[in-house]
Fold this sequence. Notes:
This protein is an alpha+beta fold. The chain has one domain (3-17, 32-175). The chain is built from six helices and five strands. The chain has helices at residues 3-17, 29-32, 92-96, 122-125, 134-147, 151-175; strands at 45-46, 61-69, 75-81, 99-103, 109-113. It has a three-stranded antiparallel beta sheet with strand order 1-3-2, with no helix packed on it. A two-stranded antiparallel sheet has the order 4-5. Strand 2 (61-69) and strand 3 form a beta hairpin. The longest helix is centred in the last third of the chain and has 25 residues, at 151-175. Residues 28-29, 31-32, 34-36, 97-98, 120-123 line the site of one iron/sulfur cluster. It comes from Thermoclostridium stercorarium (strain ATCC 35414 / DSM 8532 / NCIMB 11754). This is YkgJ family cysteine cluster protein.
Amino acid sequence: xxxxxxxxxxxxxxxxxxxxxxxxxxxxxxxxxxxxxxxxxxxxxxxxxxxxxxxxxxxxxxxxxxxxxxxxxxxxxxxxxxxxxxxxxxxxxxxxxxxxxxxxxxxxxxxxxxxxxxxxxxxxxxxxxxxxxxxxxxxxxxxxxxxxxxxxxxxxxxxxxxxxxxxxxxxxxxxxx
Length: 177
Ligand code: SF4
Ligand code: SF4
């Protein structure tokens, strides 16, 4: 199977399992007027490696290169949208926001609140008031193993984890912890 076909199949399966489940039991966009969907032409959501194949020829979005380059030269892509999308085509990063996969010290994936969401997201601002549903986190643990068989995806998650650690260090310094 060629790599385009492999990735299309992989992400369609993962997307499908995250189609009808959300971090809270209700539409969290009501809390913030869908703040995470109000980017500009120059920012957007990171695509997981190979996910860009699913956006070829789509009129509602564009795909741009980022400055994140994997060890084999593959460039991580950014999906830029106009703040609206066909719900069944939203990328994995949007389906799991405000969580990100994180590789812990045992090289096992876990899911953490994305520090890049701290400024905009009511869930990360007040996780006690708005705890992410257990059933949602369980689903993430269920859908990620096939993705983790792909070396590019693992390397991408390693980079996300390093970015997480870097940002958390900065937040700790700012808050004096
Ligand atoms: S910013 Fe947070 S609360 Fe608002 S829509 Fe996005 S995930 Fe939901
Ligand atoms: S792709 Fe869809 S869900 Fe993701 S930021 Fe754009 S409008 Fe929001």
